[in-house]
Amino acid sequence: MQRRHTNIRHVTRLCGTLDPCEIKEIHLQNRKFTWCNERPDPTLCKPDSYFRNTYWDLHFENHVLAAPSSALSDHLPLFLASDHGLK
User: Fold this and answer.
1) Global pTM?
2) Which residue has better confidence, 40 or 44?
3) Is 59 a domain residue?
């Protein structure tokens, strides 16, 4: 199996773009990966992310990002919940 390596230059460039805007990733609570190719030696990855800014944090302090199980797809849905609801 061919291993893919993270391109640090691309990660640094993305962080350099997001940091001045005060945009942060909302971390997935219950899983490390949201996709699997379902092979004996599986490829696991997390192709989707949610991001937030300071304004969003002020209005939705308590939030959770989770990926419930799915028997319908090899992709897991992402579920973002807040106990503040929409204002």
Assistant:
1) 0.59
2) 40
3) yes
